[in-house]
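For the sake of clarity, the format in which proteins appear in this thesis is described at this point. The record quoted next illustrates the convention:

___
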Amino acid sequence: MIHIKTKYINELGYIERGKYGNGKTALILMSAHNDTLTVATVNLPKIDLKEDQVIIKDYSENEGVREFLEYHNIVEGTGIIIQPGFAQLEVCKLLPENEWDLKK
């Protein structure tokens, strides 16, 4: 278990790594009771991503998710900015799970 703390979430839980139907990686923040707290990633089928890349939703109810993920060494920015709609998003590198620091 990890303390998941963002602007709108403050709970014990864990991170579940999954796949969208098109094969892109999804990161889901789950509660200790196995409830979905939020989906940290967005699936933009028209944006080409490498296997180790994700797009983090860090606006609206997900505000602070990226900072949480970076703090725990789960993702890091790439400098690649996209704007699929009203929000600017950065493509992030998903770090290998053995580098995640979930003990902070």
Q: What stands out?
A: Residues 23 and 92 are 17 Å apart (CA to CA). The chain has a mean pLDDT of 96. The radius of gyration is 13 Å.
